[in-house]
Every structure is written in structure tokens, then in C-alpha cells.
């Protein structure tokens, strides 16, 4: 008895949803009936039927308020049936009324999915993300600069720069006073403040720029990798200074900015140790551990 009741409930549910299939297309009407054609009518017959009915029920031709409503329905039916894709979907919905949710999904995808270009969505998303990225970097940078400007070291640098610009001419009265705000602003523009972790935002580092330059970056990477394999794997050449620095930096896992700020003598020492060789790296780490223990 329970299976019968279950199937009966499903039948009642589907029956209640059947009008919905027509509603998403031509409301309670049949699109073919609105145009006065059969389901087997070709595109030319559908077009002729629409133009004939539009002349009869167009608001400019027929002042009756009801004709305006009917004209809207006729125009909607024609929009559905004139396109082969939407007509095929509508025919499928008529033939398979039990597939309510599938038919509804196809309808909304056909009418709303294609109206938004995925490329435009992607570009818009990248622009929004880049705007947030730039705003976040600028906020961090301004906050860091503001904190640095409060430190005594920064004020001392400003005073030193002021003395340099004035040729070292100053007096006790002038030295005891604070630097004029306008002068301080001019001097601060001359000081290049490099704050680790809060660098000044750059357009080249934005996501949208990375995405635009992605083909170039990939091409450059492939070319670099190919030339690396040719020079050092196939041809067995000695590593150039730049490539040896790259291998050393990668072996030590040192950030690029930190590597750039290293003393040249320290760089020479590290590169000369050939740390990209596993045994050399192990020996270097052992040496560091011994040095740390000695200092303790």
C-alpha cells in the first residue's frame, strides 16, 4: 500500500507542477496556439503568423487595452519559437513535462546565461580584485610610513638632510625648533623609505596586469627553462654568475629582496661554496650549527 501512496503523491506533485512548465515560457498558454500554428510548422510559417497577428493586435493598430496584453504574449511566443534552440527546449518541455526542474534550468540558462559574456565577467572580477589589492597595499604603505615618521631615527634623518641642503649652516635657536611642516614635507619626499613588507603599491604587481602578461610570462619561462637545459644539462657549461646566484638563493630559500641587500663579499662566499650541491649544503649547515653553539 505504501508504494502506491508514494507514487500517488509523486503524481499529484508532478500534476501540480505541470502548469509551471508553460508558465516559464508562455505563462498558462501554449506558444503554438498563441501564434495559431501547429507544432510541426516551419520557421517561415511561424514568422508569417507572427507578422499577421502583430498587425492585428499591435497597440498602434488596435487601441483595445486587452489587445496590448495579447500582443505581448504573441511577441513572447514568437521570441521562443523563432530561435531553434529555445524552440527545441520548449518542444522537449512539452514532451517531458515530468522533468520540471531540468526544463526550468534549461530555460533560465538559455535566457539569462548567454546574456552575460564570461569574458566580461572575468575582466570585471579581475578589476575588482586588483582594486582591492591596490587599496590594501596603499593602506598598509601609508600606515607604515606614518609609523616610521614618528620615530626619532626618521626625524634625525630629516635634520641631517636639512643641514645638507643648507650647507651645514644652522644655529642653536633654529636647531631647537621643530622643522617647519612645509619644509618637513619637502624633505620627506626626498627620503626614499623602503619598508620591508609594506612596499609602495605598483601597478605592475596587480592581478589584472599579471593575467594580461601571463602569455608573455609563460613564454619567457619556457624559453628560460629550455635554454637552461641546453646550457647546463646538455652542453654542460659552467654556471654564469647570475645563474649561480639564483641557485644559491634558491638553495638557501632567501627572498630576492634579502639577497639583493647582502654584502657582495658574503654573496661571493656563498656562491663559491656551491650550495646547490647537496653535500656542500649539508656541510654549510653543519658549520652554521657549530658556530651558533660556540656563540652560546
TrEMBL record:
Membrane-spanning parts: 203-223
Keywords: Chaperone, Endoplasmic reticulum, Glycoprotein, Membrane, Signal, Transmembrane, Transmembrane helix
Chief subcellular location: endoplasmic reticulum
Keyword Chaperone: yes
Cellular component, GO annotation: endoplasmic reticulum membrane
Position of the signal peptide: 1-23
One Pfam family here: DnaJ
GO annotation terms (biological process): protein folding
Location relative to the cell: Endoplasmic reticulum membrane
Membrane-topology annotation of the record: Multi-pass membrane protein
Segments forming domain J: 30-94
Claim: Acyltransferase is one of the keywords in the record: no
Coiled coil regions, renumbered to chain: none
InterPro entries cross-referenced by the UniProt entry: DnaJ_domain, DnaJ_domain_CS, DNAJC25-like, J_dom_sf
Functional description taken from the UniProt entry: May play a role in protein folding in the endoplasmic reticulum.
Record-given protein name: J domain-containing protein
Amino acid at each position: 500500500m505504501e508504494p502506491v501512496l508514494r507514487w500517488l503523491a509523486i503524481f499529484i506533485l508532478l500534476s501540480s507542477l505541470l502548469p509551471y512548465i508553460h508558465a516559464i515560457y508562455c505563462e498558462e498558454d501554449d506558444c503554438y496556439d498563441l501564434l495559431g500554428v501547429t507544432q510541426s510548422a516551419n520557421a517561415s510559417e511561424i514568422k508569417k503568423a507572427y507578422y499577421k497577428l502583430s498587425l492585428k493586435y499591435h497597440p498602434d493598430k488596435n487601441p483595445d487595452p486587452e489587445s496590448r496584453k495579447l500582443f505581448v504574449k504573441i511577441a513572447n511566443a514568437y521570441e521562443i519559437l523563432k530561435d531553434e534552440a529555445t524552440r527545441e527546449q520548449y518542444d522537449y518541455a512539452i514532451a517531458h513535462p515530468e522533468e520540471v526542474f531540468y526544463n526550468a534550468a534549461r530555460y533560465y540558462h538559455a535566457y539569462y546565461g548567454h546574456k552575460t559574456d564570461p569574458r566580461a565577467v572575468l575582466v570585471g572580477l579581475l578589476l575588482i580584485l586588483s582594486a582591492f589589492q591596490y587599496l590594501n597595499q596603499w593602506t598598509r604603505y601609508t600606515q607604515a610610513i606614518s609609523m616610521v615618521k614618528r620615530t626619532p631615527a626618521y626625524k634625525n634623518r630629516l635634520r641631517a638632510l636639512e643641514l645638507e641642503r643648507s650647507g651645514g649652516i644652522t644655529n642653536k635657536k633654529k636647531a631647537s625648533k621643530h622643522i617647519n611642516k612645509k619644509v618637513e614635507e619637502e624633505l620627506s619626499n626626498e627620503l626614499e623609505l623602503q619598508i620591508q613588507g609594506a612596499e609602495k603599491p605598483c601597478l605592475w604587481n596587480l592581478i589584472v596586469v599579471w593575467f594580461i602578461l601571463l602569455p608573455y610570462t609563460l613564454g619567457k619561462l619556457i624559453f628560460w627553462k629550455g635554454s637552461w637545459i641546453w646550457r647546463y644539462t646538455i652542453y654542460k657549461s659552467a654556471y654564469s654568475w647570475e645563474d649561480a646566484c639564483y641557485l644559491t638563493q634558491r638553495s638557501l630559500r632567501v627572498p630576492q629582496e634579502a639577497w639583493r641587500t647582502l654584502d657582495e663579499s658574503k654573496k661571493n662566499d656563498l656562491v663559491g661554496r656551491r650550495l646547490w650541491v647537496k653535500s656542500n649544503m649539508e656541510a654549510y649547515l653543519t658549520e652554521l650549527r657549530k658556530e651558533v653553539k660556540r656563540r652560546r
